Protein 1
Amino acid sequence: MIHRLADCMNPNVPESTNVWQFCVVLPNCRIGEHCNICANVLIENDVVIGNYVTIKCGVQIWDGIELEDHVMVGANVSFTNDLYPRSHNKNWTLMRTKVCKGASIGAGSVILPGLTIGEGAMVGAGSVVTKDIPAGEIWVGNPARFYRKIDE
């Protein structure tokens, strides 16, 4: 389902995926089955989104971001893809970020570029992630720090 008020330029969004109002989806991204892309989400071209992914309202998925299957991205999460952003810089370096299968990112978190959030990991709401997060761990705070293993 693509809401009539979404600007979805990608003809390959599966029917099982919902794209809600005021979203902008550029034509060359890849989006999997059974995703829920909530209102006011922007998805650029060089993006891969797996199956069963939820992206809550107010998130921008910039070039170089990959969300594997069953990832949850909370409202107003900020991804970045440039470590040293400058206006009109034509020589910037794209840094790729990967959020692995089953990971969850809490609302309002900031994810710096070039990082990997491991399988099943969780990021607490409002955290600023400056390092890779290993699989199966919960990280919280600014900067985000290890809190505990998920099975503890």
Protein 2
Amino acid sequence: MSSSKELQAAIKKLKAFNFPPKMELSDFREKFDSTFSSVFLPNRVEKIEKNFDGVPACILQPEIYSSHRIMIYIHGGSFTGGSAKAYLPFAAALANATSSKTVVPDFRLPPSHPYPAGLEDVQKVFRTVYSEEIVAQSLNSESGDASAKPEIIIAADDSGASIAAALILSLKGRFRTSIRQLFLFSPILNIAESNPILTGRKSKDDIFTGKALRRCAEFYTFTENRTKAYISPVFVTADMLEDFPPVYIQIGEREFFLDDAICFQQILTGSGIRCELEVCKGMIHMFQLADEYLREAHLAIERIGKIITSKKSGSESVTEIGLVLEKSRFSTDSFFDEES
């Protein structure tokens, strides 16, 4: 267990997630990026910049990765901040631990681009990734692996959890079933006006204040919209969850988002969806980003890596860096439900 001094140092760093009312948006974003970004990526992970149907993104490739698996990581940032740049060190560590090529989109942010702009950008990235993976697997089938199909993992944290859930809810048929699993780190799952967190009826978090979170929610979308499942996943209904993938939630014991995570787990399991909730003792919001202070951060990522790499062991093809994905000519008109 990390010491009290180490935990306080982590809290000081992670307060970059909090967007106080008196801070300018540009200052918040600059502080967030400078706090979490790094010139060097861990574990010799290679970074490639690419445009996905107009959406800039970074592709992270570990030295060894599965040719049948790709991860899309949807970053957090309290709805109004965050970037691929800020999340590259964490996403690279996750890519290495899971032996997964990982795409980190730089989607548009409110208030200049409120909901559904970020979701639309992530949908474009998913469309392109799916189509390219179909082509890649068809190329693999020429060497005798005709049954191979794209295996896509969606991971997200903080406010990115809302977009990740909305992405999956918007997918139809085989596109939804191509998602192997959804991983959520410290997810924000309810920004409805009635949530005690936003109204101040719940005690302060180590990182956030309810007032700051309310401000971010107001930037993201209007009040009446925030009780919809595409905005606040805790409002999802059973009829929306057909073929929803298994979910794994990793969250700190000290977060005031924990109650909503428990609620979301109960909704999913009540609808027959497997959902595992890992509550990390004594930990705070997105403690995984403070790995220089907290030993628990490394252990948490190791656990995610074991979960992903242990599934279907022996059936995956592992390849060195250099897999080239050809452009697909598949029609993408029917990927998503009109509601999205």
Protein 3
Amino acid sequence: MAAPAQNLRIDGDRLWDSLMEMAKIGPGIAGGNNRQTLTDEDGEGRALFQRWCEEAGLSMGLDQMGNMFARREGTDPDALPVYVGSHLDTQPTGGKYDGVLGVLGGLEIVRTLNDLGIRTRHPIVVTNWTNEEGTRFAPAMLASGVFAGVLDQAWAEDRRDAEGKRFGDELDRIGWRGEEEVGKRRMRAFFELHIEQGPILEAEGKDIGVVTHGQGLRWVQCTVTGKGQHTGSTPMRMRRNAGRGLARITELVHEIAMARQPNAVGAIGHIDIYPNSRNIIPEKAVFTVDFRSHELETLTGMVDELLSKAPAICADLGCAFESEVVGQFDPPAFDPDCVASVRSAAQRLGYGHMDIISGAGHDACWINRVAPTAMVMCPCVDGLSHNEAEEISRDWARAGADVLFHAVLETAEIVED
């Protein structure tokens, strides 16, 4: 495959304008976005993306999980398409770039090819994966997981949000369920551009992260059950305080991850306390432990240690402990050839770059199981993400999209006139 000419670049201003236009849909309260999956705002964002795709001459495919596939035809009808994309849904207090940069960066590739009159042998398909964030319907990367065959579609459609609403019902409600069977598409390769969501690239002064591996993840939902009693009239020695169980397990999680530095992280994020009253000792605590590592042995070891020690901690407090793994994927190693295409593109374009491991989960981690896959990362200010203050620069966005452009174009093969 011939490398694209060094002077081929995307229109960085147009990409930035598109990012700002999409950010107007589902605005947050502090400058970011609240465009959670399968909300009316998600539907509106999808409609804008579809309109832009149709204006660029793309045909839109839609599968039964709501995954969107905007296709630019190649010259060879039998050639496998090169896929590129990410997700448009956000956290409740999300930023303007997480996921969206990857989708609109893919669209910008097509727009630039149209501007330059460049044809490719392989079709190019720009993708928006449904429910990457998992904030409304757990787990994360739900629809790409179904596509890759690691999650059951019926199970996925039965996921419920905090109000008890089903994923499948909400997908129907906003009108974005397609008829196409999930996972039947074949890919030559898949590329995903994303902000780093961490501080490494900015600290190292690099424009581009060449992602070689992703971290594996285990979400362990834990329930500590004690006894709800009056805080004023129950003697301290007679209490069965589920909140103490939560507190001690929080420290345990930290100790488990710290003992495996630098190749592991762990924390408790989501917490529900019942009955959550000022003058009642907590009778139940439900919380999710998030462990991550790019080493499978380390990842499973952390979970094993948690599940071996937490029950004893709770028993010592007179409380019961239960657990369930509610999200998981093993550490992916991305395709060497696709990774090499990203690295050579960064070198060819003169961008400072370094190999990096993705600390967050992405749709590419699932698609890697069914197609050659690689990721491109650009820095974000202070490593801040999943926060309305999330920020990147125009230059970072342009550099990431340029590298994505070259890697996709090399894989899709330019047709010389």
Protein 4
Amino acid sequence: MSTVQIIDHPLIQHKLTLIRDIHTGPKEFRELLDEVSLLMGYEVTRDFPLEDVEVTTPVGQARGKMMSGRKVGLIPILRAGLGMVNGLLRLIPTAKVGHIGVFRDPQTLTPVEYYCKLPEDIQERELVVLDPMLATGGSAATSIDFIKERGGKSIRLMCLIAAPEGIARVQKRHPDVDIYVAAVDERLNDHGYIVPGLGDAGDRLFGTR
């Protein structure tokens, strides 16, 4: 079974509270989500493989560590996942970015695919799937299906807030995919929204309804 890591760094928890606040507007929401994504990225990438190297400093030789040859891919789930990309790109500027478009049918709450564009060498990359909200888990689980169908193997899921139902669904479908979140909330309501959550992350990110 995959692991669920709650990243509870004080800076992340502080910014998460501001993100939840109904009075936080789109500009501040985007900035905060970007900052939290960068901070979470340190933990999400903690176990990325390293190799020993030797470099020349101004005063001699030094032994150090650098990330090994395995490359990184970031895969936001549209729309809201886009708000998490730039923070991680500041950490890993050489990462390639794929995109998966999945929306949740408001009547059935089931995921519907409308777009999928991934790096051609996806099987060679450490992949991080990005979506601020892990609610029912349908969109995340289906997106990971698409990635695996196209050859992706080493996959982890990074979300801001998760509901227990969403975690359970992803773990059942993809027990090999570890999940990283800043908070696990109480439950889902009858409309499939996380309670207390933060509302619709895509709408708050882009100022739409």
